[in-house]
Design goal:
Blueprint: E1 5-9, H1 17-30, E2 35-40, H2 47-50, H3 61-65, H4 71-74, E3 84-87, H5 106-123, E4 127-132, H6 138-146, E5 149-154, H7 158-173, E6 178-186, H8 188-191, H9 201-208, E7 211-217, H10 220-226, H11 235-246, H12 258-262, H13 264-267
The structure holds adenosine-5'-triphosphate and magnesium ion (MG).
Length: about 270
């Protein structure tokens, strides 16, 4: 399997883990890479909805792990022109029958790992992205056993900054040592004014203690796109920048975002 296996995490809910995971999967696919995107949020899976393929989900990562279906049956290809394959999950997939929230057995983690490996090998994935849920979830535990790197998502709120720092530390103790930060959604208007009360990029980096991989601005068009209308705005070039960094390219923080670049000085306070 490819060495490029990344999980997306934060113990704080609603910070944009799934949005960033899907956005990066699409951006990597747009760069010509073959991407496997697996939903490891077994409490509140949503990638099928965000991709608009919820009516096509017949089998899930759980079925594949239990050998109830083939890789072909389990994978969905939401965007015709892209080599992006989704391995979906459904609500309460894989939760142990004896109680929600109990830790998954290492045996189950191994089954999930081999399911992801099988799917990744079949499509010859260049990248495998694992979207995990909030909290210390069963999916996070399973993803940490597979992934080599992690992307932690945090915004301006103190709660998301604290959660990001702790999530990073927890992952490092689980052996995922390459942990990087994506600031999302970044409030350019609010953080870029004199005497701003919002946490700056530097404060967010300092508060989380994580290395910065990229910054995704708040983008109303992105939320509409997720509801099936139109296309993302400024989030799209920001996600493309992050994808290119993952491909080893050196890309300025706000490349392709001239309006934000103009305000750079105020943003780096
Ligand atoms: N850059 C952005 N600009 C505008 N809205 C965003 C941005 N990123 C995320 N959002 C919005 O924030 C909400 C939460 O995003 P998302 O579902 O990706 O978070 P999450 O961390 O995966 O949540 P959960 O913890 O439930 O898994 C969504 O409505 C999404 O549209
Ligand atoms: Mg999510």
């Amino acid at each position: 399997m490819t060495e490029n296996v990344l999980l997306f995490a934060s113990s704080k809910g609603g910070v944009g883990k799934s949005t960033v995971a899907l956005g990066l999967a699409r951006a990597l696919a747009a760069e010509g890479r073959r991407v496997l995107l697996a939903d490891f949020d077994f409490c509140s899976p949503c990638l099928d909805l965000l991709c608009g393929v919820e009516d096509h989900v017949l089998y899930t990562v759980s079925d594949l792990a239990q050998e109830k279906c083939s890789v072909e049956n389990a994978l969905l290809r939401p965007y015709e022109t892209q080599e992006l394959y989704l391995l979906p999950a459904v609500q309460e997939d894989l939760l142990p029958a004896n109680g929600v929230g109990r830790s998954m057995s290492s045996e189950l983690n191994a089954l999930l790992g081999s399911a992801v490996q099988k799917a990744a090998e079949q499509i010859q994935a260049d990248f495998v992205l694992l979207d995990t849920g909030a909290g210390v979830s069963t999916g996070l535990e399973a993803a940490a056993a597979i992934a080599r790197s992690a992307v932690i998502v945090a915004g301006h709120t103190p709660a998301s900054i604290r959660a990001a720092g702790r999530s990073g530390q927890r992952l490092q103790t689980c052996g995922v040592t390459d942990v990087r930060l994506v600031i999302n959604p970044f409030d350019v208007q609010g953080a870029g004014v004199k005497k701003s009360v919002r946490h700056s990029m530097l404060e967010i980096m300092d508060g989380t203690g994580l290395l910065l991989l990229g910054v995704v601005p708040y983008d109303y068009a992105l939320t509409l796109e997720q509801e099936g209308h139109g296309a993302a705005g400024e989030a799209a070039p920001a996600l493309r920048n992050i994808a290119r960094r993952l491909l080893g390219q050196t890309i300025p923080l706000f490349s392709g975002l001239p309006k934000i670049r103009k305000r750079k000085r105020t943003l780096f306070r």
